[in-house]
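Example record

Each entry pairs one chain with its bound ligand, (2S)-2-hydroxybutanedioic acid.
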Amino acid sequence: MAKEPVRVLVTGAAGQIGYALVPMIARGIMLGADQPVILHMLDIPPAAEALNGVKMELVDAAFPLLKGVVATTDVVEACTGVNVAVMVGGFPRKEGMERKDVMSKNASIYKSQASALELHAAQNCKVLVVANPANTNALILKEFAPSIPAKNITCLTRLDHNRALGQISERLNVQVSDVKNVIIWGNHSSTQYPDVNHATAVGKPVRELVKDDEWLNGEFITTVQQRGAAIIKARKLSSALSAASAACDHIRDWVLGTPEGTWVSMGVYSDGSYNVPAGVIYSFPVTCKNGEWTIVQGLAIDEFSRKKLDLTGAELTEEKELAYSCLS
Ligand code: NAD
Ligand code: LMR
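Structure tokens for the complex follow.
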């Protein structure tokens, strides 16, 4: 028997990530090749015409799994009945704007969209925040949607995780699918810590294969940390296809489970595991089963890593305070 359609919200759907993401969802890349979907696309009034154009293209693409499209600038209509919410919409940093101004704009967007999701989304809706500052936007959403379980609100660090896999695969000249268990700790920002201490390639420890700790502790880390900026420099636009693909990976693994023996990185509400700050959205290694994530416990953290986990944790605490000061 055919499955019931799943309703997937994409905010900021007329933007560049949205344009790459909605066809992936409609093709079954996010939820599986046998899972029908109804897309809910939200954008703001100045983008309404472009949003309608995206809807027209979705119709023209005749995706067999796509059972309906809601394209709207009304946040309540967009959120009603959604089972998965991918929050890509946000206010970009413009010339001359201070960090606090960007935080202030986004904190108020995420506060109001939190209320709409809380009141109108389906029970047990899973939320993924992509828009920057992703961890802190997700935290605001969690704080202002108190009846949505904290475990249902996450942010995207899978792009950073995939970037780390890509760098190791290139360095070792192995298939990217043979590289496993890298970790992104902390914030989706340049303080994130891409950690290979537990990673393997073709079943062997990455450190043993690379045989170059100077590269692994230096250039590898900065390349992953700065990759978003490098893409902007090259494209004059921020990453879009890789971000959309990572958003699909994040939701697919969360809903359908991670393969045995493999973990992925997700920004989740911190319980203080690994002595990082509790009460912020922090990226951890997680495994997923039956639609729930669990932080991988018991990994050894050396002195070098400890400092990096603490540094990115301190930045998230500072962002949290800044976001709250903007809302008060
Ligand atoms: P974009 O500017 O092309 O698109 C953003 C869209 O959001 C626009 O269509 C805009 O009209 C819309 N929007 C603005 N305010 C909104 C609101 N209140 N409600 C609904 N929609 C709204 O940007 P993009 O390149 O698609 O990137 C989107 C976001 O994702 C940015 O914040 C970017 O920094 C972030 N990003 C995150 C990651 C990650 O790994 N977490 C990676 C890449 C980009
Ligand atoms: C990315 O990692 O590619 C983006 O978060 C960069 C950005 O600033 O939008």
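The longest strand covers residues 281-289.
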